[in-house]
Amino acid sequence: MNREQLIEIVFLLVLFGGLLYIGPGSLFQHSLNHEKPDQYGATDGFLYAMLSEYVAETGNFKYYPQYSVEGFTDAIPHHPPILMHLAAMFAHTSGLSAYSSLSLIMGIFVLFGAFIMYWLIRSWNQKVAILAAPLFVFLYVSKFVVGYTWGEALLLMGTFFLIALFYIMSKPELKPWWVPAGILIAASINTHTSETIFFYGFAVFFLAAKFVLKQMTKEELVKWLKMLALASLLAVILSFNYLPIFYNGYYKIAGGGYTSFKPMSPEEFGAIQVPPLQDFHWPVLIAILLGVVIAAVLAKKNSHVALLTSIYMFLVGLTNYIGLHYRAFQTRFLWPIYLALFFGLAIYFILKQVRITSILITAVLGIALAAVFSNAYYSPIQTGAIYDEQWQGMTWLEQNTPDNSRVLFLFGDGYSQSARVLKRQAFQIEPADYGRFISALPNRSMRIEPVMIAEMKYLHRTGLFSFGYYVLEKNMTEGFRPMDICNFDYYVVDKRSGYAPQLIQANLQVANTMIAHNMSGVYQNDHLAILQNNNVGGDCLA
């Protein structure tokens, strides 16, 4: 091992060790196992935690658990399966809970992706790679970290496979190239299918750029097309089970429901504040934009895969939301990885002008930049959308109620997200309609929503290659709908709230009325009480 190799190894150990500490370490409170899934702060995280637990318990992901789809026992999962299977397998191997395994996988695979991007850039220019790596700190800064705290597990793991595909595009000499490429394409299809689409877009962009710039002969182009065709064929074979589900689920239902001819601007995007460019902060943003210009100039002479990857994903982040559902913005969560080359290239360009070329100085500067970014922009990640007492209440329900129980959550903080982890049929009231309901007592009709997975309208098989949709076939109403509040087995009544304490008074009024009419308290702690309906469907308010 020579001196330069030793310097680079030390640099990587310090940098990625630091990233592991401020990223997954902070997010998961420097603990591998957790008593409750408190690493998540939004619906997706709790949903994937519940699905991972289900796969760990049953050993398969053939159907959704009945409690997540209003009691149907043959509703087919439209979510790609690899992540949940991997989390379940890791849980059995490590002894961790499945939701802890899921959160660990989220963090580790993003760092793996960052490391592969480093290696891809390094295959073009080692010093640019070292200077690019400090931008990875921004994965845990400002709005970028939302991808973790809101539990975008499919996106984060799918990104790893996409970056691995970018890397393998730089290795056409692999024999046979199409085998690992096909496996990675299949992995992306079965993890987060959007990344597969991005890969094929990149393949077209890469080959077109090479050919137009006369850096690829016609014979080389034909060879690439043949290898991509073989890789795609292998990917289709390996994804044979999921592709029909994707087509009949996401493509037919989600695509048709979300796609619009009207472009969505960033200002219209209110659900998740996905990072625009200025979230890099101005000094870093200026360096990135300078790097974009330099990369575009260099690509005309030698369009290395690393250059074209960064340019392509920059363009994707700027344009892929046009005409699509707002979640298309999520690609920007990973801009600290995709745009790192631009930052490193700008700093490298400046150093060359002052004739600083030592790898030792480059590595020291890289560590210094990472430290500066951490000190200036990083703050500890706050999670924990589910209170200890709420988790205790859910645990009691799972251990003391029949599997087919229907549980209604009166108003409480965060149940629209966290109730998804309850292994019972869960329902929530509409807070905005709660006041009207209270004033209309003893009227039993209330707008209530199943806390379920209805996005694909409860897809199910009607034949080997044919599918149906229970929501359409049974004319079911999705979302909040008028329901009889007396038609549930158990009721969760929160006694305090940090967001709407006025609704807690309504909770207590309803609970006291129910206790006086065929209900009994079966569990309580400082935060909540659980009531059992002793006459389901009978009078509970009058």
Task: Outline the structure in words.
The protein is α+β, with helices and mostly antiparallel strands and 542 residues long. 54% of the residues lie in helices and 8% in strands. It contains 21 helices and nine strands. The termini are far apart. Residues 257-264 and 266-273 have low confidence and may be disordered.
Distance between the termini: 82 Å
SS-based class: alpha+beta
Order of helices and strands: HHHHHHHHHHHHHHHHHEHEHEEEHEEHEE
Helical content class: 40-55%
**Uncertain stretches:** 257-264, 266-273
Biggest beta sheet summary: 7 strands, mixed
Write down the overall mean pLDDT: 87
Q: Any idea how many domains?
A: 2
CA radius of gyration is 26 Å
Shape: globular
User: What proportion of the residues form beta strands (DSSP E)?
Assistant: 5-15%
Number of helices: 21
The total beta strand count reads: 9
Strand line-up in the sheet with most strands: 6-3-2-1-7-9-8
